[in-house]
Structure formats: C-alpha cells, structure tokens
Specification:
193 residues, alpha+beta, Glucose Permease (Domain IIA), nine-stranded antiparallel sheet, globular
C-alpha cells in the first residue's frame, strides 16, 4: 500500500467491519462505518498556510513532485521555508493521529482533517501536540526546524496531504511515480489562491 497511514487506516476499517459482521447482534451495523466515511467527505474544508506568517512566496511552486528527490524519488509535498522556531499551525481542523520522532521526517505530527485527508508536518524543531488532540485551523502543532533528513539544510516545514481513498482522476501516467498522485494530494490546490 502507499503509505503506512493509509495501510493502517484501511486495515482498521476492515477489522472494525469484520468484527461487526461476525457478531450476530452487531451484524446489522456492518455498513455504519461506510456511512460515517460518507459523512466525513461532506465536512467542509478551508485550508490555511500551516506556518505562522508565511505567504505563498515561502515555497516553490515546483516543490510538489519535484524530481529527482533522493531516496523518496519524487517530493510528495511542499517545503515552506521560515525561520527556525516559527510556529507550525494546523492547516485545518481535525484530530492529531500521532506524533513521532525519527526517520526521514525527524519530529513529525500527523493530523486527520475533513474528507479523510491526512496532513503531515515534518522536520519540526519542537512538537507541541499529542495523539488524539482535537485541533482547530490555526492551532499550534510545533515549530519550524530541520530535523530528520533536513539536518544541515535551511529550516522548513515539509507539508504533505495524503488520502487513503484513491483519487483515481489524479493519476498521472506521464509523471515519475505518477500512480501515487492518487494518494498524495497537492497542497497547492488549496493553499495557492
Ligand atoms: Zn520536503
């Protein structure tokens, strides 16, 4: 599967539906999760730039899907450059799914927002969020840094958006790893207006 978040999300969904179905008393609720997912897609989304004070000039318009991009092959997000220590804020309302430290992302925060989109904030200097924390658009999640594989590079927020449900119409047969564009959404679509 495309990302570990996608894999975990779909696996938990199937496990939940499977356990509802196996139990006679709950069998008739098996499709409730599908209904809840449908409702999640109806939630409105209004996105803001996830770095305090940043403007559209603080990231390159070729940042998304830049190639070649080291071990990631293509760059599946945008890099918003700002001074170290600047607040990283949630681009939408949602729920913090996890915080993590280690690997390529360094200190990272994952937020589930409306429409089942997962918002990933990486290379943070400090994390200021906790799992299952409800957040509003603009809630502080941490600060801009250069942790993970950004060590030694100018501080920036790596921001990406993924969906566990493929947007098949975004499949790009001409791009490198173009199939993955069904799962990695371009933040520019909502941030650059
Ligand atoms: Zn990046």
């Amino acid at each position: 599967m495309i990302t570990s978040t996608t894999r975990r999300f779909l696996a938990s969904l199937l496990i939940l539906m499977g356990s509802l179905y196996r139990n006679k008393r709950t069998r008739r609720f098996t499709l409730i999760p599908i209904l809840v997912i449908g409702l999640g897609f109806l939630l409105p989304q209004k996105m803001i730039i996830p770095v305090q004070g940043a403007t559209i000039r603080d990231w390159d318009d070729h940042s998304f899907w830049a190639y070649p991009w080291g071990s990631s092959v293509t760059h599946k997000g945008i890099d918003i450059f700002e001074k170290k220590g600047t607040d990283v804020i949630s681009s939408t309302y949602g729920i913090v799914m996890y915080t993590y430290e280690g690997g390529k992302g360094g200190k990272t925060v994952m937020v589930l927002g409306p429409k089942w989109r997962f918002h990933y904030y990486a290379h943070l200097d400090e994390i200021d969020a906790f799992p299952f924390q409800p957040v509003a658009s603009g809630t502080k999640l941490g600060t801009v840094g250069n942790t993970g594989n950004a060590v030694g590079k100018p501080p920036h927020l790596h921001y990406s958006i993924t969906t566990p449900f493929p947007y098949w119409w975004l499949r790009d047969k001409d791009a490198i790893q173009g199939n993955r564009k069904m799962f990695y959404l371009d933040p520019d679509t909502w941030l650059r207006k």
